[in-house]
Write a structure and sequence with these properties.
Helix content is 46%, strand content 11%. It is mainly alpha-helical. Strands 1-2 form a two-stranded parallel ribbon. It is elongated and about 45 Å long. The two termini are 16 Å apart.
Length: 107
């Protein structure tokens, strides 16, 4: 399970680079590092918890929304690797705001 996240609410124009990096890292860098660390394992699944903000945005949370959108797209990329046979264990994605994102993270 990957359910990390950090958020610094503020409009993007007012955010410091450090805040943006700290917000992006747990979701974006985290999912890539975890996938690389498990790419040779015979996984049954790999679950990521995203946010609806990745699809619709959220005022004062552009970086957080971007990190979640990246995770959703990475899910799709990773599942294509599974379909090709170069990975095992489909990614599953669950939004933390509303329902699941099975339409985003194909099964």
């Amino acid at each position: 399970l990957h359910c990390a996240g950090v958020n610094y609410d503020n409009y993007l124009i007012k955010k410091k680079e450090e805040e943006i990096c700290k917000t992006l890292a747990p979701k974006a860098t985290g999912v890539v590092l975890l996938e690389n660390a498990t790419k040779n394992l015979d996984l049954d699944f790999f679950i990521c918890f995203s946010s609806l903000s990745g699809a619709i945005g959220s005022a004062g949370q552009a970086d957080y929304a971007s990190a979640n959108a990246f995770m959703d797209e990475y899910c799709i990329y990773r599942n294509k690797l599974v379909e090709k046979g170069s990975r095992k264990g489909m990614f599953r994605c669950q939004t933390t705001d509303k329902g699941n994102c099975s339409d985003v993270c194909a099964t």
